[in-house]
Design brief:
Number of helices: 14
Shape: globular
CATH class of the largest domain: Alpha Beta
CATH architecture of the largest domain: 3-Layer(bba) Sandwich
Number of domains: 4
Distance between the termini: 75 Å
CATH superfamily of the largest domain: FAD/NAD(P)-binding domain
Structural class: alpha/beta
Radius of gyration: 25 Å
Helix content: 25-40%
CATH topology of the largest domain: FAD/NAD(P)-binding domain
Strand content: 15-25%
Oligomer: single chain
Length: 507
């Protein structure tokens, strides 16, 4: 058996006859006798090992445990939750919430009059609002693993062979050696760092390290105008910082509907953000009191701090994947099939490490679906065709379905319905009147084709329309919003207003 993967260790439900042949071929091709590590009798053995405890890893581990499997999870950080909990979604959204509350206080004449001056909190003080949220999220997720009898290991995971890996926790003693029948890689991603930029400089940050900044900058240059860059542009501008947002492309978030993208650009500029399109950096110069960025166009910008927000890379380095025949691409991402299987059919991958859609919500579902397929050999559930986007700028953005550009290119006859927040009683009450709900629907069948929302609570509002879009046949019809009674005053009423607006265009 030296030089071969033991097929007996893989559940029959996981391998079809075709997959078995494929695995034998991969095994003989990729493992020479001196590469195969003899398994020790006392190595812990599990049905499933999950690498990573972010949304994808949690979804996979919980599903496998509920299916009666013995499960272990490996987390390189000293706390569970992954990047989503500790460096990404949770802390940045908690920071945004704290800043918005401060802004709301300062724009209220009543509150300012009562205090006698504007409320001014530093960046570190505002960040502390996220600490309690992170602590609660971490405790809750650790409890999930304990209650479901999932064994937790801390350290870096590296495959020794197709069924064995080691977990090394820094330089602390001997690594743990674990074996399993199946694996789910949910190791996440980290910010892409060009080699010519000194990220050890105290004024140069990426989207992970920006959350450890100990001062409040007067000015900040954000390189990269994707979702993360636009969100932080809103955050820092609402703190009163001078913000330069550098976009390597000609339009912000071009995957959005053009009207929504243009609205975002307008309101960021209206708030005071300087947006610079079609620019590429030449070099970055660190200074004692800030930094200079030199551009290929000849421009140069000085700021107190630089936030590099231009791309992410999958966490696949030093995992021993290449020796197994699993070769990540140049962005560290793993290729998978429709069932989340890698080149070896008993090793699955989900979440940011596989690329699109790189959303926490989608990653959790991917983990559940991958674990179902691993355990049962099949899975009837897949990600929905249209996944809602949630972009937490100020105002926030959410959309689902197709854009006007896509429908026009596909020559699908459609019509548009608008509801402007400034006309809604609830928005007038809250003072959040900037925004729009936009419905795209088929002129003939009245099927809803796309929903695009820009404004306060957009990420919540979009789910009402999503539920109707998910219906089959005649149930997916814009008339639903006309014939349904909504609470008044609510933001949900925007659907009735937009539907009537669109239907009136058909006359």
């Amino acid at each position: 058996m030296d030089g071969l993967i033991s097929l007996a260790a893989v559940p029959a439900s996981v391998l079809s006859s075709i997959e078995t042949a494929k695995l034998r071929k991969l095994s003989s091709a990729n493992f020479r006798p001196n590469q195969r590590r003899a398994r020790r009798m006392n190595d812990p053995h599990y049905d499933v090992i999950v690498i990573g405890t972010g949304p994808g890893g949690e979804g996979a581990a919980m599903k496998a445990a509920k299916e009666g499997q013995s499960v272990a999870v490996i987390e390189k950080h000293h706390l569970v939750g992954g990047g989503c909990t500790h460096w990404g979604t949770i802390p940045s959204k908690a920071l945004r919430h704290a800043i918005n509350r401060m802004l709301e206080f300062n724009t209220s004449a009543t509150f300012r009059s009562a205090l006698g001056h504007a409320l001014k909190l530093s960046y570190p003080e505002l960040l502390r609002s996220a600490e309690s949220v992170i602590a609660r999220q971490t405790a809750m997720r650790r409890d999930f693993y304990e209650r479901n009898r999932v064994t937790l290991y801390h350290g870096h995971a590296k495959f020794l062979d197709a069924h064995t890996l080691e977990v090394r926790a820094g330089n602390q003693g001997e690594p743990a050696v674990l074996a399993a029948d199946g694996f789910v890689i949910a190791s996440g991603s980290h910010p892409f760092r060009p080699r010519d930029i000194d990220f050890n400089h105290p004024r140069i940050f990426d989207s992970d390290t920006i959350l450890s900044m100990s001062t409040t900058p007067r000015s900040i240059l954000i390189y990269g105008a994707g979702v993360i860059g636009c969100e932080y542009a809103s955050i820092f501008r609402n703190m009163g910082c001078k913000v330069d947002l550098v976009d390597t492309r000609s339009q912000l978030l071009s995957f959005l509907d053009d009207e929504i993208s243009h609205a975002l650009s307008y309101h960021l500029r209206d708030q005071g953000v300087m947006i610079r399109h079609n620019e590429e950096y030449e070099s970055v110069e660190g200074l004692p009191d800030g930094m200079f960025m030199h551009f290929k166009s000849g421009k140069k910008i000085k700021a107190d701090a630089l936030l590099w927000a231009n791309g992410r890379t999958g966490n696949t380095a030093n995992m021993g994947l290449e020796e197994l025949g699993i070769t990540p691409n140049n962005r560290g991402q793993i290729k998978i099939d429709d069932n989340y299987r890698t080149a070896l059919p008993h090793i699955y991958a989900v979440g940011d490490v596989v690329g699109y859609p790189s959303l926490a919500s989608a990653a959790y579902d991917q983990g559940r679906f991958a674990a179902t397929h691993l355990v049962q050999g099949s899975c009837d559930h897949h990600l929905v065709d249209y996944i809602p986007t949630g972009i937490y700028t100020s105002p926030e953005i959410s959309s689902i379905g197709r854009t006007e550009r896509e429908l026009t290119e596909a020559r699908i006859p459609y019509e548009v319905g608008h509801a402007y927040f400034k006309s809604l009683a609830r928005a007038q009450i809250t003072g959040r009147t900037v925004g729009i709900l936009k419905l795209l629907f088929h002129r003939d069948t009245l099927e809803i084709l796309g929903i695009h929302c820009f404004g306060d609570q957009a990420a919540e509002i979009v789910h009402i329309g999503q539920a109707i879009m998910a219906q089959q046949g005649e149930a997916n019809n814009i008339q639903y919003f006309v014939n349904t009674t909504f609470n008044y005053p609510t933001m949900a009423e925007a659907y009735r207003v937009a539907a009537l607006n669109g239907l009136n265009r058909l006359a």
